[in-house]
Write a structure and sequence with these properties.
31% of the residues lie in helices and 10% in strands. By secondary structure, the chain is α+β, with helices and mostly antiparallel strands. The radius of gyration is 16 Å and the shape is globular. Mean pLDDT is 76; it is low at 1-10.
Length: 108
């Protein structure tokens, strides 16, 4: 799947960058990465779009009433990605496992 490969590269799990440039080694399996990506087919003449939800949101809560609906109506291919812990997990040090429960987003 081309979209899956693009997300893998974007997330730093593939590519020729030096290990020091990539940070800690990632342990997500290919199945977990593939399961996080959901794609809708569309018109091959239109560039596909990757929708990445904001912190604390899922693709469903962030895009189902707006972009996902619009792109489906337009016939545009798009993918959404489900981020671990809705992108709220924090690591205490490089390489440490994520906490057992998502951390609260910072207050502003």
């Amino acid at each position: 799947m081309v979209c899956g490969a693009a997300v893998a590269v974007a997330l730093g799990v593939a590519g020729p960058a030096a290990a020091a440039d990539r940070g800690p080694e990632l342990s997500a399996s290919r199945e977990a990465l593939d399961g996080a990506l959901d794609c809708a087919d569309g018109d091959a003449d239109l560039d596909p779009v990757l929708l990445i939800p904001g912190i604390g949101l899922t693709p469903e809560s962030n895009f189902s009433g707006n972009y996902a609906r619009l792109f489906a109506q337009q016939g545009r291919a798009f993918c959404t990605v489900e981020l671990p812990f809705s992108a709220t997990a924090r690591r205490t040090s490089p390489g440490s496992p994520p906490p057992s429960a998502p951390a609260s987003p910072p207050h502003r």
